[in-house]
Amino acid sequence: MSLASERRAHLAAQPELLRAIRRGIEKEGLRVDVSGNLAMTPHPAALGSALTNARITTDYSESLLELITRPLPDAGSLIGELTDIHSFVALRNPGEPIWNQSMPAHLPPEADIPVAWYGTSNTGMLKHVYRLGLAWRYGKVMQCIAGVHYNFSLPEAVWDRLADGDTPQDRRNTGYMALIRNFTRHAWLLMYLFGASPAVSRSFLQHAGFEASLTRLSPDTYCLPWATSLRMSDLGYKSPIQSDLQLCYNDLDTFTTRIHRAVTTPWPAYEAIGTHRDGRRIQLNTSILQIENEYYSSIRPKQTTGRCERPNTVLRQRGIQYIEVRCMDIDPWAPAGIAIETSRFLDAFLLYCAVEESPLFPPPGFCQESQDNFSLVAREGRRPGLQLRREGRAIDLRDWAEEALDRIEPYARLLDEHAGDGGHADALDRQRAKAHDPDDTPSARLLAALRDGGHEFHDWTLAQSQAHWDFLRARGLPADTLAAYDAAARSSIADQAAIEAADTISFEDYVARFHDALGPA
């Protein structure tokens, strides 16, 4: 019996471990007006404080909502809660649908894109200034690209069997880093199966300067013909400076050391910008990264942070709590931006990544081959006969996809045994159909809808978004659920006011304290 088979047998004998798996979602989406233009209004007061509402906040822009679920025990309750949050937003802010696509709506001139505002507290200002820094470094347009972040955690007792280490925290860290390595090797598969952003409006390209590198599909629509995800390609949110970091996924200590170096090493272009303009702070520092979260990757090790805590520091002190998958496009056919079957497949895929053997990457602990496969599939994943590289050898994408799905199947069935249904196996079978027929992938279906219907990308996406919005409003919420969301929104406004009233130091002193919290390398 292989090591992976032994581990699966252990999980099968202890169903309470599978029941203790948790998954959560952070789903981004632009508020737009009825014409599909970026909403220029402030964050709606009925949704509460973007600083302190645990379920509804903003990401980069004031117009970019981020809807956050709790960690939940199954895909059904997860997508149900995410849909409830969407329905609450639709009921309380009905005139501004959420743009249900990763690539943005029609945008105003870059200077007019509103940066998210979190109030006057030091905590709120830190979040705001960080985003100002992103604008100076990368431009505002790229910050309007949206996605679905999928959080996943396994119970502590699982790592006693799956990983080595002297302490529970050591075993947990070792296990999650092994999961991340396996994920990195196979993340191209998620791009192929779920990438849903092969096209974009011309207005985005004019802002971003990429118009010449894409194919014109119609007057206002451009695409890459074989692309799965422009969002995750080099046309999306990428930083050439960050591409040289090559963070190590072999162990947490090396990973956090390299992140520490990135947030403390000045970069000439950012030094030229400076930290202040006209007496106002415009970025947190001039380092390669202002803060750890500026590092853009398809997956991150995570630990919950408190006020003025640094992600890197708490990872070192408390270890990895969960992983965050960041490469999922918004599903334009799902009212909440992600379907239940997608969540079920992700659970089986991530359990596979956690349980299967995961060799270390060669020095320096970063696998360029895996990154190249990921980028290639994002740009050309449906190209007939496309080949990837596996351990230095060429392999047909379709062959590798079918092999990977075969290896994931036991994990889908394991989850089904304890869920009492066949939902995970059904979700896996749905992905097999895509592996056999690229025309069945979301990216191909979207391009076919545009071509066959003679639609512009913007118009088609607006119609989809409005239809979902109408559904969410008509769906409504039970009275007690609606009342609970309203109460949370009101409470969050009071919480923000309390934080603002409690500040006793200047913002500059708070920034200094925040930097000091990083500690030594």
CATH class: Alpha Beta
The largest β sheet comes out as: 6 strands, antiparallel
How would you classify the quaternary structure?
single chain
* Average pLDDT: 95
Q: In percent, how helical is the residue content?
A: 40-55%
Structural class: alpha+beta
**In CATH terms, what is the fold-level topology?**
Creatine Kinase, Chain A, domain 2
Question: What's the domain count?
Answer: 1
> Got a strand count?
13
Gap from first CA to last CA: 42 Å
In DSSP terms (H or I, runs of 4 or more residues), the helix count works out at 18
* Overall body shape: globular
Spatial arrangement of strands, main beta sheet: 2-3-1-4-11-10
Family: Belongs to the glutamate--cysteine ligase type 1 family. Type 1 subfamily.
Biased composition (Basic and acidic residues): 422-439
Pathway: Sulfur metabolism; glutathione biosynthesis; glutathione from L-cysteine and L-glutamate: step 1/2
GO molecular function: glutamate-cysteine ligase activity
Structure description:
The protein has about 525 residues and is an alpha+beta fold. It is built from 18 helices and 13 strands. A six-stranded antiparallel beta sheet has the order 2-3-1-4-11-10. Strand 2 and strand 3 (about 65-70) form a beta hairpin. It is globular.
Short description:
InterPro entries: Gln_synth/guanido_kin_cat_dom (IPR014746), Glu_cys_ligase (IPR007370), Glut_cys_ligase (IPR006334). The protein is an alpha+beta fold.
Topology record:
Blueprint: H1 3-13, H2 15-19, E1 22-30, E2 56-58, E3 64-68, H3 75-92, H4 122-138, E4 148-153, H5 156-162, H6 168-194, E5 199-201, H7 202-208, E6 215-218, E7 221-223, H8 252-264, H9 268-273, E8 276-277, E9 280-281, E10 299-302, H10 311-318, E11 322-328, H11 340-355, H12 368-380, E12 387-390, E13 393-396, H13 397-419, H14 423-436, H15 442-453, H16 457-475, H17 479-502, H18 507-516
Antiparallel strand pairs: 1-3, 1-4, 2-3, 4-11, 5-7, 6-7, 8-9, 10-11, 12-13
